[in-house]
Amino acid sequence: MNRYLALSRILLKSSITPPASGRHERTKTALLMLFVAVSMLPLVAALALTVSKLYDPLAAIGQQGVLLGFGCAISGLIIFIFGIFYTINVYYFAQDVEFLLPLPLKAGEILGAKFTVTLLFEYLTQLLILAPLLVTFGIRSGAGLSYYLLAAGVYLSLPVIPLVLASLLAMALMSYSSIARHKDRFRIWAGGLGLIAALGVQFAMQKVMAGRKPEDFVRLLQEGKNSLADWAVQLFPGVRLAVKALLQQGAAAGWLNLVLFLLLTGLFILILRLAGGALYFRGAVGGSESYAAHRALNAAEMAEAGRSGGQLGALILKEIRLLVRTPAFFMNCVLVNFIWPVMILFVMTSGEQEDIEGLRRLVGSNVSLATLLLAGIGAALLVAGVSGASASGISREGSQFFSSKYLPAPYLTQLKAKMTVAFLLALAGFALLLGVVAVLFQLPAAAIGLLLLAALPAVAFPVLAGMLLDIHFPKLVWDNEYRAVKQNMNIVLLMVISGLAGAACIWLALKYGAAGWTPATAAVLLLLAVDAGLYLLLAKKGAEWLAAISA
User: Which among 11, 89, 6 is positioned nearest to 283, based on CA atoms?
Assistant: First the structure.
């Protein structure tokens, strides 16, 4: 137990504050995390407001419990889907594994410590999803102290089962397949598989919904007494007990359900410990090795490989190769740009044909060009903001950043290469999204061209802002490529800034409708001005800031 606790403390400390970072760097990181936390408050407030507005109409028919059911189910589902690939990388592909394996540590101690650290980070995820729901529901229902004690127990225990299931699946894959020896290929394919899994879950949910007869929902509604909550919790195992505990907070049954849920959680932890003792070392030893295929280049290929298209072109090619060849960067900086069009296409093609045709007619007849323009600007901001290509441009170099100081290219040219790649990736993602929307809703060619033009400054803003953030707060000390992007506060902050700006544009589109030409024009001009200011700042001071960074 002492070794498990000590290892957990060390892994957690290295994840938050790497040993190589100085006091000044830790202070900057803490301030950045504080700023990100404050920036998240509007999003949390929006979720809380939504729950609050839905409470009264649902409570009037005795179905307010469906809010807790869906909230807990979705939270668990998100943790499970993304936990599959996150646990594989943390348990097996992290650089600390090869140092931990020779130590006199049991498999359960290493696995337990890594599971604990991963679980602590999942609590941060729940702060954005589950915490606002639980608090808002308690306030609106006038719950007493008993509810909040039960809610604390649910909050702490809810992510355990999904994470255990993800861990068990990860260990099975690593122990009984050749994934361990082909980890780089797996990481790349994992991104696509994760997207397919998420879409598959959505498709299954739609099928479950479609399989329900209208009279079933009418019966549940008429029944009252939170009967819909029991239906909602079917999306994920173990959630039913947690929701019942919260809904029965004024009775002994609430505490009984929480105890049962905690016992179920403990059982899953025991299963993980037993499975870890039998499987973890088997997969971890294989995961510390890599398969590589080597091939001698002929004279023509050598000449082509040594050909240069200029400094900027060579650096752009270097950035593209780094993003494509490094699976963590590929998934979080490249693949993420193309998730949105796939999701839109999947949702539209999996629904009822009558509903889709009705939506098409509604958009075609009632949505003005001004509305589309503002919404398109908002969508471009959201797409570009989610991509971590610019906000991790410096961080991706890691301990190899020092090599940039010896490249025969000016610092500004290096920055231009990183920003160009990030801009092209985000623009390609938005263009594909626009193409899907244009085909589905039969947008005229003039509207498509105008939207593409308006998207240029909208895409450029997150790229320039992200690069500015990463120059000042680079995350150069990491033992796993995923930490350079997944635990990079610059990316999170950029998502918040772009998300708020994009949400503001979409709100203006809904508010002004056909009369939205003035705010649309103002948004484009404002983005152009801000982009010009950021670019001039980077052009003037970027090289100086980059030179001041120490690896």
Answer: 89
Q: pTM to 2 decimals?
A: 0.63
Answer yes or no: are the C-beta atoms of 87 and 166 closer than 8 Å: yes
For the chain, domain boundaries: 2-287, 311-548
Q: How many other C-beta atoms can be found within 10 angstroms of the C-beta atom of residue 282?
A: 15
Distance CA 92, CA 98 (A): 9
pLDDT in tens, 327-369: 678 877 888 888 777 767 665 555 545 445 554 554 555 567 8
226 Ramachandran zone, left/alpha/beta (phi>0; psi -120 to 50): left
Q: What is the DSSP string of 340-371?
A: HHHHHHHHHHHS-HHHHHHHHHHHHHH--HHH
The phi, psi pair for 352, rounded to 5°, reads -70, 135
Distance CA 482, CA 478 (A): 9
Distance CA 67, CA 55 (A): 8
Give one DSSP letter per residue of 6-40, joined into a string: HHHHHHHHHHHS-TT--HHHHHHHHHHHHHHHHHH
d(C-alpha 527, C-alpha 465), whole Å:
12
Using only C-alpha atoms, what is the Rg of the chain?
25
Q: Could you read off the pLDDT of 162-192 as tens digits, one per residue? A: 899 888 888 887 776 555 555 555 555 555 5
